Amino acid sequence: MAETTEPILEVRGLVKHYPLTSGILFKKQVGAVKAVDGVDFELARGETLGIVGESGCGKSTVAKMLVNLEKPTAGEIRYKGEDITRLSGRALKTVRRNIQMVFQDPYTSLNPRMTVGDIIGEAYDIHPEVAPKGDRRRRVQELLDVVGLNPEYINRYPHQFSGGQRQRIGIARGLALRPEIIVADEPVSALDVSVQAQVINLMGRLQDEFDLSYIFIAHDLSIVRHISDRVGVMYLGRIVETGRDAEIYDHPTHPYTQALLSAVPVPDPEAREHRERIILSGDVPSPTNIPSGCRFRTRCWKARERCALEVPALAVPAEFRSVSGPAAHDSACHFAEEKQVVPPEGEGEGEGEGRGGGSGPG
Amino acid sequence: MLLEVRDLHVEFHTRDGVAKAVNGVDYGVDAGETLAVLGESGSGKSVTAQTIMGILDVPPGRITAGEILFEGRDLLKLKEDERRKVRGAEMAMIFQDALSSLNPVLTVGDQLGEMFTVHRGMSRKDARAKAVELMDRVRIPAAKERVKQYPHQFSGGMRQRIMIAMAMALEPKLIIADEPTTALDVTVQAQVMDLLAELQRELHMGLILITHDLGVVADVADKIAVMYAGRIVETAPVHDIYKAPAHPYTRGLLESIPRLDQKGQELYAIKGLPPNLTRIPPGCAFHPRCPMAQDVCRTDVPPLYDVTESDAERGSACHFWRECLHG
User: Fold this and answer.
1) Alpha-carbon B276 to chain mean position
2) Which domains are assigned to chain A?
3) For the ABC transporter domain, which residue ranges apply (chain B) (predicted)?
4) Which residue of B39, B122, B158, B212 lies most exposed, with the fewest beta carbons within 10 A?
């Protein structure tokens, strides 16, 4: 459904390098932290794109660049066809109104000295065209109601709320300007399990109600699957595999995705005996010193000579190009191979075609 | 039984009143067994663990009742110097945040070696050799060189390995791991949990694993105690509880987690919030959030009913456990 219409957001070759300098008077660059190193993706209207990866993979830096909190070193971010990295002044302000962010930590992302009304309403000071002055209080109360908080709480301070309620305030603030895109960076990872579900359900409901497109960034693969239409897996500044949620979760072809999925603890003790686990050795390499060729090769059990020499492109791997099926999606691996690591559910519910079929190259 | 906690009560004096953090907890763990204590923040799971270890801050904390029997001895009746001999040597703890639990100005070798100089009276040189041996054992590469490094020079996963090495140093009989992998990435989490399970098997230790992650529990635990508002609401062998929970809170938790292997539209969400510990609701503490609550739940505190059906012991603190188990 996404391919036919123009994407609302298109990211091409996005790069963010933080320079490392030495010397006090005569600073010279001695290297760079390559936080994001060439990321491409697109987001269709009304769609949710999940981005998963471990800490340090650059997923939060991507989020910051999307909302213009960081300037990219290179690359384009096209919002409705227009490259927003080149905009400034009034044009930038208009675009920013339409791309809003929800932050991870509901404890530090709300100013403790401002009331909830001021926190949510502050957006209207910057964009007065959205709500005329006399109307603001009513608007804020409406928003509180929308996110499931009592509108009478408008004069309370953040410390009077629990973590889940604060995250609702953060979401209300994100919605204040009626944006089209919400970038949510780990919005539920600071919350307790029972509250997490409430916030995720809320985000799902709001998406339908306000026709929102989400970029949902998280390290928790189960949550990402739950909310996303498409998923991109990041490793060390790049997307290594991307596809629709069933393609990634049920038919992963990149070894990193397979390892990541197999490492997730499944809340089912029956699964512990007959589950195959891929345990990666070592840690993620430093982003100042990225391995040559495939950046995952230092931890990959399949790595061969070719992996050190050639950078694998993010495309449908050659062996799957001829087959149509869930395994034919973009994967940046020279030796891509389909492998089912998430055990299919006990009794059926096998969504659609090809669970067992098309299992890799002949 | 290696360790038995009986009817433990702990409270904290705060400006808002008395916070009743632990309100009558009973649990036990055998040698070689893994007990998972599951609960959300504020459920009292960490306070119970700190009380067992004897590292509870008193004041503001206060132990008002209960016994902690370790190999038959009540730890709460021991003098502080006797207690210190138990701590570290007989039971050890692994904390969530390895970076803040390690001393940033001492090398990891010094910190590991200290276990042997203090508890075993070894010389510094022997202790250093022991430290290297321990680091090898938790599979830290190049242990000989890295023993001289400081905590900040290690990655998160490696630091947690050092914490594990430190806990294992004196081969204790019981390990309490408080959210040992919560701060780690999934691939590293798998490495660390594997290591912990392997060492436990080797040394035949009892393990109390404190966590909020139902996935981790399913992977390693033998039995589970679910805590809510300072009480155990359900206890069961791990297989039974996932198959058929006997308490509505456990059921709600299990239904509210998104699953890797399925994509649903709406998640089940437990309504409301965990209670304020200074004002725990009367009757069953869970009743304001419970879909099954009736009048009796608002007035009578449910005891931990024996809900054993097969041979393994089970308990549920719900007046309507039958309905929950079979409905």
Assistant:
1) 21
2) 9-228 (3.40.50.300), 234-331 (no CATH)
3) 3-254
4) B122
